[in-house]
C-alpha cells in the first residue's frame, strides 16, 4: 500500500502564497505518478497538477498555469504544491494522490490523502 498525508493548508488573503506538502510512504517503488486535486463546496473534484514519478514531467490545469508548481523531494519522498498569487476561486480541499503500476487507466489515481483545506479571502 501507499500512504499519503497532506499538510500546509490554511487561511490566506488573495495574492498570498502557500506551499502544500505530501508525505509519501509505503510501497513507493511501484508509484508511477503523483498529483494534486482539489474540490470546492458543491464542485466536482478536479486535477490541478501531476508529476511523473520517474521522469518528473509535469502537467498543470489551465487555471493554475504560471501560478502553481508541483515538485518532488527525492530524499524524503515528499511531493509539494507551491501556490502563488492565490485567488478566491482557488479555495478548496486539496488532495494529494498517487497511482502505481496496478492502475492502468490514464488519469485515475488509486491512492489518496485525507485532504487539507485552503481558504482564500478577497
List the helices and strands and how they pair.
Layout: E1 2-7, E2 10-13, E3 18-26, E4 31-39, E5 46-52, E6 58-60, E7 68-73, E8 78-83, E9 92-100, E10 111-112, E11 116-121
Parallel strand pairs: 2-11
Antiparallel strand pairs: 1-3, 3-8, 4-5, 4-9, 5-6, 7-8, 9-10, 9-11
Any overview of this molecule?
The chain is built from no helices and 11 strands. The strands form 2 sheets. Strands 2, 4, 5, 6, 9, 10 and 11 form a 7-stranded mixed beta sheet that branches. The protein has a 4-stranded antiparallel beta sheet with strand order 1-3-8-7, with no helix packed on it. The model has no long low-confidence stretch (mean pLDDT 95). It is globular. β5 and β6 (58-60) form a beta hairpin. The chain has strands spanning 2-7, 10-13, 18-26, 31-39, 46-52, 58-60, 68-73, 78-83, 92-100, 111-112, 116-121. With 122 residues, the chain is mainly β.
Structural class: mainly beta
How much helix is in the residues?
Answer: under 10%
**Beta-strand segment tally:** 11
Total helical elements = 0
Major pleated sheet: 7 strands, mixed
Question: In percent terms, what proportion of residues is strand?
Answer: over 45%
Order of helices and strands: EEEEEEEEEEE
**Could you name the ranges where pLDDT drops below 50 across 5 or more consecutive residues?**
none
**Rough outline:** globular
Radius of gyration: 14 Å
Measured distance between first and last alpha carbons: 40 Å
Q: If you average the pLDDT, what whole number results? A: 95
